[in-house]
């Protein structure tokens, strides 16, 4: 082994060659990554948009069209085709382009990691009409019931937000603003309620008065 | 591996089979334990992770073997990592384009293929010293061995932990799933079980060979 090391040391390449080799490898690798990124970007964006669309339709029953709204300069304006950020919500409309409700994305800490969800909100009766978890890393078999347990998800089919969403022990739901927590996953259940309460507080003042919602722009917006 | 001059291996069936049985990366070499334990909570995850690793193994093995005379020794590890990372990024974007659900369930482990020691180990110990043909066949064997090992864990864990295989229910609805099996501890339990089984088979085989040799020695 030492013999081979000596012979190798004797013909050790200069620093310039090493730097050149690494730079070349990095350059080629960078080009390939850019190419594959560009090639897959349209499909990935379409996948994400389709996933979100499906979620909006699920949390807002009866909706057939939707458009993105963005909170800008103190008012909510239609923002079709704009980058989605935490100032973006969605408005759902029926076939006659009448406004139905908002689908509001929200996120916050869960038991293990951030929970991202989307809920459907009717500003008139001040009701939540649906909730879907978009992304979560809750404990499999326990915390993941926040989206796997149909009974828990059904809590949000008709839920009053006043004075705020409360979790109660399973089977004790009595008021319209209460949800049955999941046995064994109290923290995850409470996290969902807290995330919704925080989002509602944040958007409470930003939403226009019922009846003066932004109108649907164009036929096929978003 | 004590020889300094690396012998060019003739491509035989053994070049391929070694990775599946004799030198199985998971059950024999105990490499790449991180994805083995983390993403084998369902059969589908195990298959996807196995195939992704297989692709990166073969692609990086090919390139490392092709470039083995051009890469300066001093920067070889850094270069291998660049090569591996490039292929992993390709896989990462491709999976995102195929299915977001799958991508979400595999989480960070696709990106972490970069630091899977099976791949760097193959690049350094084999691909950088052998001709392309041998490197590809060996990487294929290792990749298949890795995928099979993930599958061994994934099916058992999904079956016991959720009562399903690939999402299809296997047991009657009365079956109460052993949730612990799809949680991290279940990974250790099932891996331990498989290692026990393989060790038992190996020892039994060795005993038989010894007995057979003893018998012939006695007979002669």
Short description:
Chain A has helices spanning 2-10, 15-59, 145-148, 150-154, 186-204; strands spanning 65-72, 75-78, 88-93, 99-109, 114-122, 127-135, 159-160, 166-168, 178-180. Chain A has 222 residues and is an alpha+beta fold.
Please tell me about this protein's structure:
The complex is a heterodimer of chains A (222) and B (220). Chain A is an alpha+beta fold. Chain A has one domain. Chain A is 37% helix and 25% strand. Chain A contains 5 helices and 9 strands. Chain A has helices at 2-10, 15-59, 145-148, 150-154, 186-204; strands spanning 65-72, 75-78, 88-93, 99-109, 114-122, 127-135, 159-160, 166-168, 178-180. The longest helix of chain A is centred in the first third of the chain and has 45 residues, at 15-59. Chain B has one domain (13-169, 177-215). In chain B, 40% of the residues are buried. Chain B is built from 8 helices and 2 strands. Chain B has 220 residues and is mainly α. Chain B is flat and about 60 Å long. Classes of the chains: A alpha+beta (222), B mainly alpha (220). The A-B interface holds A 1, 3-4, 8, 12-13, 17-18, 21-22, 25-26, 28-29, 32-33, 36-37, 39-40, 43-44, 47-48, 51, 135, 137, 139-142 and B 4, 41, 70-75, 78-79, 82-83, 85-86, 89-90, 93-94, 96-97, 99-100, 104, 107, 161-162, 177, 179, 182-183.
């Amino acid at each position: 082994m030492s013999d081979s090391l000596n012979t190798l040391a004797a013909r050790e390449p200069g620093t310039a060659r090493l730097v050149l080799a690494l730079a070349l490898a990095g350059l080629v690798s960078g080009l390939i990554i850019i190419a594959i990124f560009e090639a897959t970007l349209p499909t990935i964006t379409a996948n994400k948009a389709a996933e979100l669309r499906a979620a909006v339709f699920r949390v807002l029953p009866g909706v057939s069209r939707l458009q993105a709204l963005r909170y800008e300069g103190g008012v909510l304006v239609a923002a079709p085709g704009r980058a989605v950020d935490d100032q973006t919500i969605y408005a759902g409309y029926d076939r006659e382009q009448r406004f139905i409700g908002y689908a509001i994305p929200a996120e916050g800490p869960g038991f293990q990691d951030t929970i991202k969800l989307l809920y459907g909100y009717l500003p008139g009766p001040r009701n939540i009409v649906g909730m879907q978890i978009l992304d979560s890393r809750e404990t499999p078999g326990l915390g993941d019931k926040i989206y796997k347990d149909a009974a828990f998800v059904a809590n949000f089919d008709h839920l009053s937000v006043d004075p705020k969403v409360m979790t109660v022990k399973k089977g004790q739901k009595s008021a319209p603003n209460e949800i049955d927590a999941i046995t064994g996953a109290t923290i995850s259940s409470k996290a969902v309620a807290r995330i919704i309460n925080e989002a509602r507080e944040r958007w409470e003042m930003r939403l226009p008065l019922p009846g003066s919602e932004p109108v649907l722009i164009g036929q096929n917006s978003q | 591996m004590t020889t300094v001059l690396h012998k060019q291996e003739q491509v035989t069936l053994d070049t391929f089979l070694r990775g599946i049985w004799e030198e199985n990366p998971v059950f024999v070499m105990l490499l790449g334990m991180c994805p083995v334990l983390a993403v084998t909570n369902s059969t589908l995850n195990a298959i996807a992770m196995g195939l992704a690793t297989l692709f990166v193994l073969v692609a990086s093995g090919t390139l490392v073997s092709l470039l083995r005379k051009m890469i300066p020794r001093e920067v070889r590890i850094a270069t291998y990592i660049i090569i591996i990372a490039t292929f992993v990024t390709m896989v990462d974007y491709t999976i995102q384009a195929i299915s977001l659900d799958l991508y979400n369930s595999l989480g960070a482990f696709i990106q972490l293929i970069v630091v899977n020691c099976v791949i760097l180990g193959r690049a350094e110990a084999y691909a950088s010293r052998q001709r392309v043909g041998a490197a590809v066949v060996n990487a294929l064997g290792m990749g298949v061995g890795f995928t099979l090992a993930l599958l061994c864990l994934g099916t058992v864990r999904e079956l016991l932990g959720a009562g399903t295989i690939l999402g299809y229910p296997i047991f009657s609805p009365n079956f109460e799933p052993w949730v612990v099996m799809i949680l991290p501890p279940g990974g250790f339990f099932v891996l331990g079980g498989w290692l026990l089984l393989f060790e038992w088979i190996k020892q039994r085989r060795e005993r038989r060979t010894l007995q057979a040799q003893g018998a012939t020695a006695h007979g002669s």
